[in-house]
Amino acid sequence: MDAPLALPLLVGLIGVALLFDFLNGLHDAANSIATIVSTRVLRPQYAVFWAAFFNFIAFLFFGLHVAQTVGTGIIAPDVVDPRVIFGALTGAIAWNVITWWAGIPSSSSHALIGGLVGAGIAKAGGGAVVWAGLSKTAAAIVLSPLTGFVLALVLVLIVSWTLIRATPFAVDSSFRTLQFVSAALYSLGHGGNDAQKTMGIIAVLLFSQGHLGTEFHVPFWVVITCQAAMGLGTLFGGWRIVHTMGSKITRLSPMQGFCAETGGALTLFMATYLGVPVSTTHTITGAIVGVGAARRVSAVRWNVASNIVVAWIVTLPASALIGAAAYAAAGVFD
After folding, report:
1. What is the model's pTM?
2. Which residue among 39, 202, 251, 304 is least packed, with the fewest CB closer than 10 Å?
3. How many CB atoms within 10 Å of residue 173?
4. Which domain holds residue 224?
5. How far does CA 198 lie from the centroid of its chain?
6. Counting beta carbons within 10 angstroms of the beta carbon of residue 196, is it exposed (0 to 12), middle (13 to 18) or buried (19 or more)?
7. How many separate domains does the chain show?
């Protein structure tokens, strides 16, 4: 283990991690509120408060399996040091800012994991990577949007057949109310999965510096601080991405918004339970495409969806390169 980091630098790195968590909430606010805003069930300024509240309380409903995976299952814990964490956070934050500015709903989760892998490899080569954990995370790039797509598609078909005799006005009124529930569920899933990634980063940093004893765990103050940072980020919203997610991919009715959010939420609940750090962005995009395709294939603007998919593929290697470069640059200060 390297020499312990001076307290001000340790606090500074934790601050950078919380900044990433804040930006994650900012960047991914659209995931939780795009459908409920695009269906005009809630105005944006009220929707972000609704999402932020459920982001914050998510720790009450989920274990810390995802934090465990990020902390010990992507890069070997004995490789982690402050420079690796700095490289990982720099790669993730830089990519988040680039894609947020461009209005591209890329994955904050995979940006963080890419930055961590890039910095870890820059330090210790390919042997630094826990390939089983990374493979599971990489597989989720395909599986999470596919699962969201299938669940949302099935839900919208079931609801459509069940309510075939109901009037459009009655259906619309009912699902405008039900969307409050589905948006809350999705925000819980978002807070439960995404905030844990930053918890894992902070916990493994503390562990590498000898502050957690001999056994890796996530202190409660780390849990509550990360949930708060994500909730605050959500409050500030990500309006460029809200527009892309809520209207550019497909137009949604309240019933379709409910099905998209519920399908996405179920996907996130399963992934969080299994400890898989999935992308909430990938998940809700797959679900939105699913409800659009259930109406008709041409209802989906496939050119927009394909551009989003390209961003997904590029995120891991791009953030890894930035993370490796940041790790090398930090060596100047050693």
Report:
1. 0.84
2. 251
3. 12
4. 7-329
5. 11
6. buried
7. 1
Decide if 43 is inside a domain: yes
Placement of tokens 């008709």 in the chain: 296
List the Cα angle 82/83/85 in 5-degree steps.
65
pLDDT digits (tens, 9 = 90+) for 237-246: 655 555 555 4
Is 1 contained in some domain?
Answer: no
Number of H helices, E strands in the chain: 12, 0
| pLDDT-wise least confident of 28-37, 85-94, 163-172 | 28-37
What pLDDT digit, counting tens, does each position of 205-220 carry?
A: 999 888 888 889 999 9
Buried b / exposed e over 204-214, threshold 16 CB at 10 Å, is bbbbbbeebee
Contact 119, 84 (CB under 8 A): yes
Residue 9's alpha-carbon distances to 53, 82, 83, 86, 323, in angstroms, are: 31, 9, 11, 11, 19
**What per-residue confidence (pLDDT) applies to 304?**
59
Distance (Å, whole) CA 242 – CA 30 = 4
SS3 77: coil
Which tokens belong to 211? 């502050």
Return d(Cα 271, Cα 140) in angstroms, integer.
Answer: 9
Fill in the amino acid letter for 79: V
